Structure formats: structure tokens, C-alpha cells
Amino acid sequence: MSWPNLTPLSCPAVLAGLFLFCYDSTMQESFYFYDLETSGLNSRTDRIMQFAGQRTDLEFNPISDPVNLLVQLPEDTLPSPGAIMVTGITPQSTKQDGLTEREFCEFVINDMATPGTTIMGYNSVRFDDEFMRHTLWRNFYDPYEWQWKDRRSRWDLLDVVRLTRALRPEGIEWPVTDDGRSTNRLELITKLNGISHEHAHDALADVVALIEVSKLIKTKQPQLFDFLYSIRDKRGVQKVVNLNNPQPFVYASGRYPSAYEKTTVAFPVAAAKNGNILVFDLRYDVEELLAAEQDGTYIEKFGSHWQKEELKKDPKKKFRIEFFPMVKTLQYNHCPAVAPLGVLEKEDGWQKISLTRAKIDENLAHLKNHPEFIERVAERISQRPAFPPAVDPESALYNGFLDDHDRLLCSAVRNNGAEDLADFHPNFADERLPELLLHYKAKNYPEALDQDEAAKWEAYRVERLKGQAPKFLEEIGRIQQDLAHDKVFNGRKPEDSAYFVEELLLWYQSLQPDDY
């Protein structure tokens, strides 16, 4: 096993747990729970600032020491001040105590993503995993293999919690908001169930809490937990949801209303992009949808809350009719929480999600009588504009896949140091990679840059900061106003919050070019 090549900045006590346990990759299958704190919400442009992880066996017993480390914020990035007020992690602390992104990626590949690992998180598929992919991409690692190669897999516990709450809530206390709506915030679930979670939004505290919540569900509802674990990958989901033998199925998703615990009965109707599938929410009667579209009452009856409020302000306002989320894309590789209809036959399952078998059968019959509806909606969804290709190569992960030639060259980049990279000018086929290599050298081996490359990097860095500055300064201004009115951020003392603002402004000033 190789450990990250740590610099003096990377070796404080915060990283000590990294070295106390050498995990043998030939050991049994395991869970690896992890959580991130980041500089903002956009995985393309924001950066990881804290990583925490814990490996357990399949019964949630720790089999290594926990890992809690900082990741240095690059000097081309202004964090969201609001994010810093929540996490309390300043850019300066990451520079002092953190791994570089390159060192962090070495840790991920060598010590986190070992063979047989199921990588676990809470809303990780849509958030944490995306940050990990983009970080690996920027550092010339394959952004996907860490979650599937060598018997590895991933699993997102958020939808597991949703489906458990909807179908098998017994034995667990479930939180609601002040106005009575269901909420699945991790820190509220832990509080109600007597689970210690003293520092929410600290990555390690969130990891420990997630392990305990997983253990709670496994203990109270083992059959459902084990079933969802068994179908966590694409092939498992396809056994339940497919077009070869389409059947109604139970489906929990954040796109569905909290009034029904984010859970419904859906039916597969058409193929979608990237090998996925479109499903129809059988809570709705397609004939009622079509009638409302025809008589102009669709927004009033089925529109979003925002649309209904806008219609109250201006009854003549026109909206494009969209049948979403009645028809939505189920992404096979996003660990969706699905189950056969039989789970509703036990423990008042139908009643719990406010549906009946008769209503589902009726709505399904109506749906099958209107193939033109499915064709129309499927075509509209297929014509949705994709995200425009990113111009910045650091954000361009999803512009395309690399061929074998470039993958070999990426491996060579990772294995070269400053002296070798100074004279390394690979013949990349992919147009994103030459500039990405320039950025990689500038961040990790600035001594490997020639004069022209150094000038290009500085021009890029300054331009990127200029693009981030207006939003950064505007947000700082709002926080200063809030502090002047004694607003409390994440339970901290006002002087601590003021300190974070000062540190952010110092960070901003330190990144300005010499002629600023």
C-alpha cells in the first residue's frame, strides 16, 4: 500500500488517524461511510475543503480508525461565505493543515476505494460523489472507476431513509418541521432517536451520525434494509424496473411531495437518455391531466406552488404545460429506492402513502389507453437542452470520455514529478487535457512551468477570481449586515462569526495579483 506523499503542511494531528491503521485490500467486503464539506454547492466550480470517512464491516462495526482531513483550497477559488459560516472551515486553515488535491486523490484511490468497498453517503450521489468525480478529473485520475471497479459499489442512504419512513416507519422517531411537514434532515433524525450528533455540518460528526442511523434502520427494519442493499446497483434496479416486463413499483424520490413521504407507485413507460428510463407517477390519472390541459385549469390543479402563486397574482399569465414530475427520469446508477408492489400489501402500506390498489389499476388502465401522451412527453423530455459544454477544462468532466490513448497519458502525468513534468509535453487527443495539465502543474509543481506557462496560469487564475468576486463580496456584505443585527450563525458566538468574515476578506486580498 502506498500512502500520500505528504508535505509538512499535511502532517498535523488532524491527519494522524490516516496512518494508524493499514487496511488490507484483500479483506472482506466493507462499508465506507464518507461526507464532505465544500466551498460551495457547485461541484464544477467549488472545491472540497474537508473529508471524513469511516470503514465498517457489514454490521457497522469500525474496522479502521476514522479519517478526518482538510483539503487545501486552491488559490484560484473564493469560497461561498455562507458555506464558511456554516462549516467554520476557513481557507487559511486548509492551507495550514490540509492535503493538496493531488495528495487527497492518492488517499482516495489507495486507501478509501479498496476492493469490495461499498461507498456510502447521505445525498452523496447528487452531491458528494459529484465533487469527488470532479476532483479526480482535475488530477488526472479516472473519475468513475473508484466506485465500480474491483467489486466496489456505491449506495446513497437518503432515499433508503425516505422509503423506510414511508413504508416501515415503526421503531424509529421521525422529525417534522414547525409547520408539520416531514423532513429527513440527518441532524433531526439523530436528535429524536437519541443519537449523539453534537457538531452537525462537521464532516466526521455527520459520518458517525449516518452510521448510527443506518444501524438503526437495519435493526428496526432489517428486511427492507437488506433488500435495498441487494439492489443498490444498476443491474439490481433493472430487475424491478424495466421495459421488457413493465410492472408498477414503489418509488421514493426527492421529486415527489413530502405530503406522501416522497413515495409513490410508478410505472415504466419509455426509454430515456443514457440507458435510463422514464416512469409515470400512478398517483395521477392521465385523463384528468389531459382534461385540465384542454380546459386551461392545469396550473390551478397540478402546477407547482410557485406557478399557483403567480397565477393568483396574474390570472391571465400563461405557463408552458409540463407533465413533470408526473413523468420523470429514473437513473439506474443513482441507487434509486424502489421495491415491488408487494411491499404495500403488508403493514398498511397502501394507506401509509395514501393510495389504493384499485386507484392504481384504474390509473394504469387509463395510461395504457393514451400512448400518444407518453410519446409526446418522452419526445419533449428528450429535447430538453443538455448542459452546455464547459469552457473551463477543470469543469469539463462531462464534455466527453477519454480514449485509451489519453488514459495512458493521464497515468503518466500522475506518476511524474516536477522535474519530469517540466519537459513532458504529451500528445493528447482530447482538447481539454493540455490546459488541464497546465493547471495541474501550476497547482502542484509551479517550478515545472516555463515563463510562458506561468503567465498563462496567472491570467487564468486572475480571470477566474474576477468572475467569482462580485458574488463573494455581495454575500460578505449581507453577512456583515446580519451580524450588525445580532444574527447567530450555526449557534456560534458573534465574535467567532466576525472572525470568519475577517479571514475571508484576508483570503480575498491575498489572492489579488501583485499590481492590484
Number of domains: 3
CATH C-level name of the largest domain? Alpha Beta
Strand order of the largest sheet: 3-2-1-4-5
CATH homologous superfamily of the largest domain, by name? Answer: Exonuclease ExoI, domain 2
Distance between the termini: 46 Å
Number of strands: 10
Low-pLDDT sequence parts: 1-26
- The amount of beta strand, in percent, is 5-15%
Task: Please outline the major beta sheet.
Answer: 5 strands, mixed
Write the element-wise H/E pattern from the N-terminal end onward. EEEHHHEHEHHHHHEEEHHHEEHHHHHHHH
Secondary-structure content class: alpha+beta
CATH-level-2 architecture of the largest domain? 2-Layer Sandwich
How many helical stretches? 20
Q: Give the helix level as a range of percent.
A: 40-55%
Structural description of this entry:
The chain has 516 residues and is an alpha+beta fold. It has three domains: 8-158, Ribonuclease H-like superfamily/Ribonuclease H (Nucleotidyltransferase, domain 5, 2-Layer Sandwich); 231-382, PX Domain (2-Layer Sandwich), CATH 3.30.1520; 393-510, Exonuclease ExoI, domain 3 (Monooxygenase), CATH 1.20.1280.70. Helix content is 43%, strand content 11%. It is built from 20 helices and ten strands. The strands form two sheets. A five-stranded mixed β-sheet has the order 3-2-1-4-5. Strands 9-8-7-6-10 form a five-stranded antiparallel β-sheet. Helix 4 (128-138) links the parallel strand 4 (117-121) and strand 5 (153-156). It is globular, with a radius of gyration of 25 Å.
